[in-house]
Design a protein that fits this description.
The chain is of the alpha/beta class. It folds into two domains: 3-38 and 285-384, Aspartate Aminotransferase, domain 1, CATH 3.90.1150.10; 40-282, Aspartate Aminotransferase, domain 2. It has helices at residues 3-6, 12-20, 40-51, 64-77, 94-105, 121-128, 149-155, 178-191, 254-264, 270-281, 283-306, 332-343, 370-388, and strands at 27-28, 88-91, 111-116, 132-137, 139-141, 144-146, 160-166, 194-198, 227-232, 245-248, 311-313, 321-326, 345-346, 348-349, 360-364. It starts with a helix and ends with a helix. It binds 4'-deoxy-4'-aminopyridoxal-5'-phosphate. 4'-deoxy-4'-aminopyridoxal-5'-phosphate is lined by residues 32, 93-95, 119, 166, 170, 198, 200, 232, 234, 240, 245.
């Protein structure tokens, strides 16, 4: 086996969850998904596809009608970009979209810069390709995380092949501003660096905006810029288990990506693509409801957490996580394990997302029943009282 594979660190979130996933008395908020099932119209479309016998391979880059619908969807959110269907490829999940992008762009030994804390897959993927990964940490101020722009721009040189950014960010909720995106893009143009923007949470954005989504690199880039944007049906359509995502690429990369898809998964399954078409057809009913519910979840959880003694937390501008720290409790792994065992509360340890996340915990607030969030906080409050008392 290649040594980088042998040395890959297993997910610390899984380490906490695997030990206790079967326990009925644990309130689990450790994974990044809602506990609400996919809307009926989407499930129905998949069932109808299967019943009509759509059990065959499809085009490498996805059904033409889905690429067309995604082009319209992306253009609706990013009118300045006007995303042509020919720049879209459909993938088997956001994870696969990101891995394909990294496979297409990164050679062994290449330098890749990543802004952390971040969902661990984004660091693992270039590592698997044999890249030299260099992390630039966000900095916390009163519970909210921000970008150290001089540090980031200083880290990106002519030797940097790829910059990977995830905003709105898992786990911190940090979101890039339009001005920051412009500055980063201008700098990467000057160094010849590709940008891989993981924008899977773009619709889960809680600030008022005209297009109903977070600022995107698509809004500021030209169609032939060295920019790849990764997306997913998982979050805004409640479709985590379906494994469907897409990439927006410069047109010159699309044929090569079709080849790579052939050798990775060949294509996404047709019935999930039919489900995706239904998701897009009903987007105006589904996504605003999901987003307003998640906002309600955030606005329920964060003030309750902030009231606890010694807790530092800020409301996330986007995403579906509260990222918080508790004074004097700096070993996140140990705290997360003890919370499961002693309080029946399942959270993800912050150091799963990079060393700067140590001392922090991630709580996924996408809960169908907000009462579960309040019950979780009650358990945490009682556990904290036992530590101090
Ligand atoms: N990017 C980020 C930042 C994520 O948090 C996730 C899911 N946890 C994904 C991409 C991928 O999602 P999926 O593979 O379910 O489409």
């Amino acid at each position: 086996m290649r040594s980088v594979i042998a040395q890959l660190e297993a997910s610390k979130i899984r380490e906490i969850a695997n030990a206790d996933m079967g326990r009925k008395d644990v309130l689990a908020f450790w994974f990044g998904e809602s506990d609400e099932v996919t809307p009926e119209v989407i499930r129905r479309a998949a069932i109808e596809s299967l019943e009509s016998g759509e059990t065959f391979y499809s085009q490498n880059c996805g059904l033409p009608e889905l690429r067309e619908a995604l082009g319209q969807y992306m253009t609706e959110s990013h009118p300045a970009a006007s995303v042509d269907a020919g720049r879209i490829v459909v993938t088997s999940g956001g994870v696969s979209a990101l891995m394909l992008a990294v496979q297409a762009l990164v050679d062994a030994g290449d330098e890749v810069v990543i802004v952390t804390p971040v969902w661990p897959n984004l660091v693992a993927q270039p590592t698997i390709m044999g890249a030299q990964v260099r992390c630039v940490p966000l900095r916390p101020h009163a519970g909210a995380w921000g970008l150290d722009m001089p540090a980031l721009l200083g880290a990106i040189t002519a030797r940097t092949k790829l910059l990977i950014l995830n905003a709105p960010n898992n786990p911190t909720g940090w979101t890039l501003t339009r001005e920051e995106q412009q500055q980063i893009l201008a700098h990467c143009r000057s160094t010849g660096t590709w940008i891989l923007a993981d924008e899977v949470y773009e619709k889960l954005y809680y600030e008022p905006t005209a297009q109903g989504c977070a600022p995107s690199f698509l809004d500021v880039a030209a169609p032939d810029d060295r920019l790849v944007v990764a997306h997913s049906f998982s979050k805004s359509f409640l479709m985590t288990g379906w494994r469907l995502g897409w990439l927006v690429l410069p047109e010159a990369l699309v044929d090569a990506m079709g080849k790579l898809i052939e050798f990775n998964t060949s294509c996404a399954s047709v019935f999930t693509q039919r489900a995706a078409l239904a998701a897009l057809a009903y987007r105006k009913e589904i996504t605003p409801r999901v987003v307003s519910h998640f906002k309600h979840c955030r606005d329920t959880l964060v003030p309750l957490l902030a009231e606890l003694p010694g807790v530092q937390v800020a409301p996330a501008r986007g995403g579906m996580y509260a990222f918080f720290r508790m004074e004097g409790l700096d070993d996140s792994m140990e705290v997360a394990k003890r919370l499961v065992a002693e309080a029946g509360l399942g959270l993800a340890p912050g150091d799963a997302f990079g060393p700067e996340g140590r001392g922090w915990l991630r709580w996924c607030f996408a809960s169908k029943d907000v009462g579960r969030l309040a019950e979780g906080v009650r358990r945490l409050r009682e556990w904290l009282a036992r530590q101090h008392g």
